[in-house]
Design a protein that fits this description.
By secondary structure, the chain is of the alpha+beta class. 29% of the residues lie in helices and 38% in strands. It is built from eight helices and 19 strands. Helix 3 packs across helix 7. The model has no long low-confidence stretch (mean pLDDT 93).
Length: 312
């Protein structure tokens, strides 16, 4: 649907008195160009205006929508959230879909859509990118009154709730799904044997045991093998704190699923793929792993020699 509005773009000072805007599945089309949802950090409604903040510091102000304001906001939020969902790479069937309150581990709070999947809880804020909480890394899920506290193994805490009659069932099903996911992952990982010097195995997503990874860990180095049916290479990383690196490695692997390109492609290639760009933006673990990159080793006759030299 198209909307007539006034449009301001700062800090470049562009102004359009009567602009024709259209919201599309991948972004917003305006007289100033197309703004992809992957470039948007937040959308904020205030006094019948909509402020759209980009990661590069640009702010787009949409005003003078008149009676079309509610329709514009609802369509914008829906398309933005749908695109955010795509960047989470979820293939499982949704178990529950509710609307309630949330507080993120960053202390950001608000209302939004709260969804439960077999291996994750997803929060869809109205004004920013979706957050996926993997149940396999939860330490505790507790219902306190009308709010559910989800504590991660790292100590981070997410709060969701005030979903009306759905709050208690959401908590109960989350606890059950977390236990089932952890049990299933442990059984599936136990079925993968790593050959020395690789000693650690892990899954991408719980639903697919055919796609997994193994890691060889040195004192400050890591060599990573990805088994996804694609061409083989060994990805190399350097780190300072072994335990912290392993936590982030596991989280990053689970975040990207089988989309292995996200952890090794150069920045320009990530930026050229909107879904990959969104995935990197929303995951501190993925950004951390990418920052530790030390290159890769191609599988050839000198692979093991190069690998052992790096680990030593």
């Amino acid at each position: 649907m198209q909307y007539n509005a006034s449009l301001d773009i700062d800090p470049n000072g562009k102004h359009f008195d009567r602009a024709v805007l259209s919201i599309e599945p991948e972004g917003i089309k305006t007289p100033a160009g197309f703004f992809d949802f992957s470039d948007i950090s937040a959308i904020i409604p205030n006094n019948y205006r909509v402020y759209i903040n980009l990661f590069d510091g640009t702010r787009i102000t949409v005003s003078m929508l008149g009676h079309s304001y509610d329709g514009f906001w609802e369509e914008l939020v829906k398309c933005f959230n749908d695109r955010s969902l795509d960047s989470l790479f979820i293939e499982e069937e949704r178990l529950m879909n509710c609307y309630g309150e949330y507080t993120l581990s960053t202390s950001e709070s608000g209302r939004g859509r709260l969804c439960l999947y077999p291996d994750s809880i997803c929060i869809f804020p109205e004004n920013s990118h979706a957050v996926r909480i993997p149940l396999c890394y939860t330490a505790d899920i507790t219902l306190n009154g009308y709010m559910i506290s989800v504590t991660m193994r790292t100590g981070e805490v997410y709060s969701i709730g005030k979903m009306g009659y759905d709050t208690k069932p959401f908590a109960e099903r989350s606890i059950k799904s977390a236990a089932a996911t952890k049990k299933k992952r442990a059984e599936m990982i136990a079925g993968h044997t790593a050959s020395a010097p690789f000693s650690i195995s892990g899954l991408f997503r719980t639903m697919d045991e055919e796609k997994y990874w193994t890691a060889a860990i040195g004192k400050t180095t890591c060599a990573l093998e990805l088994f996804t049916g694609d061409s083989a290479a060994t990805y190399l990383y350097r780190f300072d704190n072994r335990e912290f690196f392993l936590y982030k490695l596991e989280e990053a692997m689970e975040t990207v699923g089988s989309h292995r390109e996200i952890i090794y492609q150069p920045e320009e290639m990530i930026n050229a793929n909107p879904l990959y760009k969104m995935a990197v933006h929303r995951s501190p673990a993925v950004r951390f792993l990418r920052s530790c990159s030390a290159g890769r080793i191609i599988h050839n006759e000198k692979h093991r020699e190069n690998l052992m030299s790096f680990l030593d």
